[in-house]
Design brief:
mainly alpha
Length: about 60
């Protein structure tokens, strides 16, 4: 079975991007959120990247 990246429906704070990355990479989503927050604080590129990912990455269809 092919592994696909989806936004999380059950592990989300905003749009589910970090939760989806955590599920895809089998990491704790909290670690990904902390790394993302650091990117947002230093340079602001994290916020732009998060918005782009929220638009591009589809929601997980298994939860509909």
């Amino acid at each position: 079975m092919e592994k696909k990246l989806y936004r999380s429906q059950n592990n989300r704070m905003l749009a589910g991007v970090c939760g989806g990355l955590g599920e895809y990479l089998t990491l704790d989503p909290t670690v990904i959120r902390v790394i993302w927050a650091v990117f947002c604080l230093f340079g602001g590129t994290g916020l732009l990247l998060y918005l782009i990912c929220a638009v591009i990455i589809p929601e997980n269809p298994l939860y509909y």
